[in-house]
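# step 3/5: fold
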Amino acid sequence: MHALKLSKSTVSDWCHDVRLTKRQLNHLYKSKKSGGLKGSIVAAKNKQEKRIKETQELFILGKKEIGMLSKRDRFLAGIAFYASEGTKSDKGCSFSNSDSTIIKFMVDWFREFGYVTQKKFYGAIWIHEGLNEGKAKKFWSKLTRIPLDHFYKTYIAINKKDSKKIRKNIHQNGVFSFYVSNVVLYRKIRGWIGGVLAGSMV
């Protein structure tokens, strides 16, 4: 911390998600500065394993509590997702996310509840410079079944060389957006959102 001229809390935030390999841990463990360092490594490793186990258990419990979704459940879930991540412009429908499971859910939702046909979908990718654009396009196309010739030009985010910001989460396939040019459907979705919100106040 002294060498970096940073506070312990700042370094802790930066290194929160850093996971050392077994080789790195063994190297530290066998270092001459044994004593307290070994104890710290063991304690940190135990804490990490406990956190991973608790996270896995809560994930399994959460899925069990949800159970199977009915058609109405899926309908309402899609409305909630769109209210959060969908565009609010009266020019058609658009939805963006980096999570492939959410994107697939929403594309299927538009097909099921918006009756959107295959040829009406268009996609686009926002991806950082240096990542594999071609691989990302194939990934999203396969997942959504939107053909590559229905993809708009990819937006490449240029990495700022003088930036001190540390990116913890690098999405290898970028952020995906899909578009449906249907103003009527957009206005209907806005009505669905209004209905959910009004119903929650009863």
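# step 4/5: annotate
Strands lie at 93-97, 121-128, 155-157, 175-180.
# step 5/5: archive (pending)
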